[in-house]
Amino acid sequence: MQQQQLEHFKKYFDDYVSTFYGGDEFVNQNIKLKVDHTRRVCREILLIAASIGLSDEQKLLAETVAIFHDIGRFGQFQKYGTYSDAESINHSGLGLRLIREKKLLADLSSREIKIIERSIALHGKKDMPDSLDDKTAIFSKLIRDADKLDIYCVMLTHIDNFRKNPQQYLASMGFPNTRRCSAEIFDAVMNNRTVHYKDLKTLDDMLIVQMGWITDINFVETLRQIKKRGYIEQMAALLPHTPEMKKLTAHILRYLDEKIVKA
């Protein structure tokens, strides 16, 4: 893969997403949310890729995965008015359909196409399959980490707006902005189990699950960035200040430190 191919993908992305803006400010805000997210994920994936010594050509491939990982989100929101896959359609599958119909990757090798498409397909899955070959697994892990790293930023940046506009939040995400944590979600995170988005019932559930993502992080650089940026502490501050939440936060921070030391 070459730099000019990456530049072509970037231009396609910019041109494509520009078609979704219109006269509805709510729609515009939600489209911009995902556009900005994609651009930051591109930066995050390069940061992580550099930390594990990927070559310049491998970094081009990694950034391509990042550019297209959420390309299905825009059509999803246009048609269904939500980013909830459970309430609409799988956004990864929708994005892959667009990529194939438009033959966006036609100039790449079959090996590169396989890595990009598989990584996109798996980036939002609850768990990764054990059957992936080593190279595909690396890029799948990279996009999963980079995506999570920026979702922390998205939540912390937009949480006030989510709280102030519960109906808009419900429309975008598919579950209510309720100050309550589900017992089963709390238990899963305390026991280091991953949770499927379809099991979330409230905004607090989402915050707790995202704090617990550290058990599903693949690279030590991602963990170091989470710690350096104070994401866990900032998210914990948004939750009720109860003994249970303090226990949960302490558990997650301890786990984070232990994973960094062991790495």
Order of helices and strands: HHHHHHHHHHHHH
Instruction: State the share of residues found in helices, binned by percent.
Output: 55-70%
Number of strands: 0
Treating each run of at least 4 consecutive H or I residues as one helix, how many helices?
13
The Rg value, from CA coordinates, equals: 18 Å
What is the distance, rounded to the nearest whole angstrom, between the alpha carbons of the first and last residues?
A: 31 Å
Q: Provide the structure class.
A: mainly alpha
Low-confidence stretches: none
* β-strand amount: under 5%
Shape field: globular
Query: What's the average pLDDT?
Result: 91
Description:
The chain has helices at 3-18, 25-51, 56-68, 72-80, 91-101, 110-122, 134-164, 166-173, 183-190, 203-211, 220-229, 231-236, 243-262. The chain contains 13 helices and no strands. The relative contact order is 0.10. It is an all-alpha fold and 263 residues long. It folds into 2 domains: 3-145, no CATH class; 178-262, no CATH class. The chain is globular. 69% of the residues lie in helices and 0% in strands. α3 (56-68) crosses α7, α4 crosses α5 and α5 (91-101) runs antiparallel to α6 (110-122).
